[in-house]
Amino acid sequence: MNVPVWVDGRLVRPDQATVSVFDHGLMVGDGVFETVKSVNGVPFALTRHLDRLRLSARRMDLPEPDVEAITSGVRACLAEAPPWPLGRVRITYTGGLGPLGSDRGDQGCTTVVIAGEQRPFPATAGVVVVPWPRNEHGALTGVKSTSYGENVKALLYAKTAGGGEAIFENLAGDLCEGTGSNVFIVREGRLITPTTASGCLAGVTRALTLEWCGGYQEDVPLSALYEADEAFLTSTTRDIQPIRAVDRTVLPAAPGPITAKAMRVFAERSAADLDP
Description:
- The protein is α+β, with helices and mostly antiparallel strands.
- The chain has helices at residues 24-28, 46-59, 67-80, 149-160, 204-213, 223-226, 257-272, and strands at 5-7, 10-12, 31-39, 42-43, 86-94, 110-117, 125-129, 165-169, 175-178, 182-187, 190-193, 216-217, 230-235, 239-246, 249-250.
- The two termini are 30 Å apart.
């Protein structure tokens, strides 16, 4: 069982893992999810991820997920997995069986956990700003929703242009986030990341970077990314990844001294505590 799968309380073979075609997560994207890094078979920051899963479910008006059962599912999948040095665990929680429309059904939610290997990201990233702004006032702002079509389109746009990640501004013209990452910039020696009021997701790695490395949460114009002395992305699967270029603008350093220090501190602190 190279890719362990856990569905609604049962560990199953990948070729036997099924979800109904009437599941609301499939039909209308009615669900939330988390991606958790694993290090040598141990999940990293699982408590924080499950806390955010509960928050996302609450904001989507979904029933409270059973985090104890999900924790068991995560550990069962990792116990069955090959000894990957670096892995990823996808937790998906949907509205369950529903009608052919936006109304929800009443037969309970669906929970799926899948473990897979995670390939390391490149040492640096080129990012591409996409022409579609994030709506910082939308109903799903701050929710890690399975309605990910916008991100899929944006990432394809970025990769077609030779980038590794897409960057969104918001309706106010401020820097927001990537498709699966948060953004930090360095200006005049200050480490800055957009506030959650910008419409960005409150990333787990973002929060740990602020706690361990310091920094400021401020709304800044999109132009600040092009003008940054240094910049980096944070996400569960990439930790801290320096940005070398924004569109055709090459940044002065990747990593610069503040980014390099943040990378070192994050690596040390995360190695010392796998559930911070």
